[in-house]
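In response to the reviewer comment on reproducibility (Comment 2.3), we provide here a single inverse folding case reported in full, input and output, so that an independent group could reproduce the run without further information from us. The structure tokens appear first.
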């Protein structure tokens, strides 16, 4: 870790072998292997089958403005990033007090989660979850699996200006499914950004959003715009 943080190794550089490190530090090879596995789990290095271990490439800096005036897709495209969005699912969720309270809906009403995977330059960067009430959007169950941009969907329904009420940041670790989607290890922290999106004209709440960002591959500029 000291050698990585002091930039003794260059991004993408191959690391010394287990035997070389064992000899250098005077420890058993198994000790070296365990240390390397921990570094890999935390997202600092990666393995190539039959070739060795390498230091992760330099992080890409992403401008992550937290306001909801523009969609995520619009923000990324305006910044010049090569963005791809894949719709993962649209499914009705079980009752969740926090989400239902955020959406201001009753316990007996249906809430759907529309999930999309965001990729920059082919690398998975985030899982974008939008929670919406079926009372507000009656066709969401049928149409949700085709949505890649919620803002584009809202515009088709007559909503044209958007705003956010609050943005909260926290940290978590990925579930097995999230590891698979984001191509990351279990100990790579994820940044959670939660916010509400409202129709700026009438103040109607459109969705509660929860986005999970990889923390190991990108640097995020959270300057308010």
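Designed residues, in position order:
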């Amino acid at each position: 870790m000291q050698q990585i943080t002091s930039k003794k190794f260059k991004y993408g550089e191959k690391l010394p072998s287990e035997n070389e490190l064992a000899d250098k530090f005077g420890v058993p090879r198994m000790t070296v292997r365990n240390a390397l596995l921990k570094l890999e789990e935390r997202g600092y290095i990666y393995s190539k089958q039959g070739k060795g271990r390498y230091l992760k490439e330099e992080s890409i800096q992403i401008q992550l403005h937290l306001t909801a005036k523009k969609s995520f897709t619009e923000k990324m495209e305006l910044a010049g990033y090569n963005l791809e969005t894949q719709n993962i699912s649209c499914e009705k969720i079980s009752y969740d007090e926090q989400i239902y309270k955020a959406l201001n809906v009753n316990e007996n009403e249906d809430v759907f989660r529309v999930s999309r995977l965001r990729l920059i330059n082919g690398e998975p960067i985030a899982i974008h979850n939008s929670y919406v009430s079926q009372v507000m959007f009656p066709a969401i169950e049928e149409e949700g699996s085709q949505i890649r941009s919620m803002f584009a969907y809202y515009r088709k329904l007559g909503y044209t200006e958007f705003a956010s009420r609050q943005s909260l940041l926290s940290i978590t670790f990925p579930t097995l499914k999230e590891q698979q989607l984001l191509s990351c290890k279990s100990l790579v922290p994820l940044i959670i950004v939660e916010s509400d999106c409202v129709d700026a004209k009438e103040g109607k709440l459109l969705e509660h959003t929860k986005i999970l960002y990889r923390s190991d591959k990108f640097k995020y500029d959270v300057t308010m715009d």
